[in-house]
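Field guide to reading this record: the first block holds the primary sequence, the second block holds the structure written as discrete tokens, and the final block holds curator observations. Each block starts with its own label. This record concerns (2Fe-2S)-binding protein, catalogued under organism Tsuneonella suprasediminis.

BLOCK 1 — SEQUENCE
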Amino acid sequence: MPGMTVNGRPVRFDLDPKTPLLHALREAANLTGTKYGCGVGDCHACTVIVDGEALRSCLITIAEAEGRYITTIEGLARDRSHPVQQALVAEQAIQCGFCTPGIVMAAAALLKANANPTEEDIRAALPNLCRCGVYPRLVRAIQRAGRVARREETISAAPAPGISAQDAGKAVPAMAAPKD
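BLOCK 2 — STRUCTURE
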């Protein structure tokens, strides 16, 4: 049973070692934020971070992932506070959202390696296909995320879906046990 660390937790998959990491994450671990796009590595929708590097999870088997550290979109920032996530929203660089998790993961890996990427660096690090064509906004958003990561700028991010702006940042009261 191949084992690895996924989003900070040790995981063992009782699957054929030739199973693509993408399918193990989506089907066995229920981490469905990693998207199945083309299945042959062309679209980059399935990008995850493996040991700090953006890799297409449809092209790596769970045997090849053995002993490695995997970060999926769910493990990047549960509260959506990562600078890339904030900047994509602020720059309106999200359309349908299908390619977004792969783009976020590729951009997060890029900024970890280079917090001040040029437009050429961004285009080289993000070969992700986006059918909505938000590429100019993506470049601006990733450059802005770099400024946020370097603490040159802040973004007032919207609260997560389902949370009112008034309640954002407040402590959540404990739920009382139901009475019979």
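BLOCK 3 — OBSERVATIONS
The longest strand covers residues 3-6.
Residues 83-149 form a domain with the DNA polymerase; domain 1 fold (CATH 1.10.150.120).
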